[in-house]
């Protein structure tokens, strides 16, 4: 791109400011760079480190302006390949350190903090240094660390925060649809709850409901409810191995009684009870998840919530399905092939849903779900 061309001058004025020979990105441009670096890391596997320097909540005060100019001057000492800009205009300065070596990340953070502290001490007084806050955020962390430090998710995904803010009214409408819809369905399906509960109790020993920890939006764990369809105290090793193969893209389709080319799921699972097979085929085992919807842990429509050992096998880009939307009982995957499509295609459908979501899309998916359940049961 020719930055001297007249058509590009407005971009320079709008998105960047200069500090000597370095460009300081304004808030919108800098946050776009964070999003781009996430995409690059997902493809290359090379992490990046985001450093934030917070100067407080008074962006227009003379004190803040004076401190910010000195901080920006000190940041000239960073590498030319690093990206400097306003994470939050006139309040929080950010630096993206690219291509960090994951194995040496702790040493790198210490080195960066020491280097920045030294540079700042040459520009700021001790009182001014005490007034600012410095934090580091690595992308990607291991999934376990992400679950422990969920604040990192919002920091590293500012684009999603803005998207959700723009959809605020729709988000409220979605929650209303979830509460009203789940309440109506619970009332209508109450006789089914009684029949299924009796059938489970009469055919196998163990509880009526099955609780399993699942991974919700942004890695928040919750207890998913289902009607028990398996024998109590079963071993999940066969499912763990099949999910490993499925996520890696090497799983075989399982025969589905001659109906089509087969499905990507365990069809001959000895853990499943006789009544459990019927419940799974008709999706009646998932009815108790309406309670999860009422509690706000799930939505009527969204990506299916995975088990923690599945998430440990995810590629980096797979994780976005858990970041960008709340999990749901049904979704684009369920009404577009369900278990007949590969795992990567399921993730792409989840990401497509998150990007194009609206209450009208939710309504369309809900209306298509009964047909998808009937076709899946054939």
Residue-averaged pLDDT: 83
- Report the sheet with the most strands, covering strand number, pairing sense and barrel closure: 6 strands, mixed
**Count of DSSP H/I helices:** 18
Shape: elongated
Fraction of helical residues: 40-55%
State which percent range the strand residues make up. 5-15%
Rg calc: 25 Å
Q: What string gives the helices and strands in order?
A: HEEHEHEEHHEHHHHHEEHHHEHHEHHH
Gap between N and C termini = 56 Å
Uncertain residue segments: 1-14
How many structural domains are formed by the residues? 2
Strand order of the largest sheet: 1-2-4-5-3-6
Number of strands: 10
Label the structural class. alpha+beta
Describe this structure as you would to a colleague.
By secondary structure, the chain is an alpha+beta fold. The chain folds into two domains: about 5-140, Alpha-Beta Plaits; about 165-375, no CATH class. It contains 18 helices and ten strands. The chain has helices spanning about 5-15, 25-45, 60-75, 105-120, 125-130, 145-150, 150-155, 160-165, 170-190, 190-205, 235-250, 275-280, 290-295, 310, 320-325, 330-335, 345-355, 360-375; strands at about 15-20, 20-25, 50-55, 85-90, 90-95, 135-140, 210-215, 220-225, 300, 330. Strands 1-2-4-5-3-6 form a six-stranded mixed beta sheet, with helices on both faces. The chain has a two-stranded antiparallel sheet with strand order 7-8. Helix 10 (about 190-205) packs antiparallel against helix 12. It is elongated, with a radius of gyration of 25 Å. The model is unreliable at about 1-15 (pLDDT under 50).
